[in-house]
Amino acid sequence: MARAERQRALASGALAESLAATFLESNGLCVVAxxxxxxxxxxxxxxxDGDTLVFVEVRLRRSRRYGGAAESITAAKRARLxxxxxxxxxxxxxxxxxxxxxxxxxxxxxxxxxxxRDAVSV
Length: 122
Hints:
By secondary structure, the chain is of the alpha+beta class. It has a single domain, classed as 3-Layer(aba) Sandwich (Trna Endonuclease, Chain: A, domain 1), CATH 3.40.1350.10. Helix content is 32%, strand content 37%. The protein contains two helices and five strands; from the N terminus they run αβββαββ. It has a five-stranded mixed beta sheet with strand order 1-2-3-4-5, with helices on both faces. Strand 1 and strand 2 form a beta hairpin. The model has no long low-confidence stretch (mean pLDDT 88).
């Protein structure tokens, strides 16, 4: 991927994460962390939904040429995401109830956001 193209992709990803955070906050969740990195990968958003800790994977698709955003969460991606979440949980004094959700953003359009609760099993 060319450098300029990579920069555009990173900027689009950051915008998609901001749209997702705003969407989740408008639905009552509280964003507590963004872009949490571990040796297993990155957790896009960590939120609180009442007493439940919610790990959020944000997926952006500009076109359906290679499938939709949901199809882009492969088995390998799910495994890395679960490992990253378990690594995050290991840093806490107590393990709260938790789940992994996915926010699917279509073409950076805030009106076309899909929220998949419990998208990945922990």
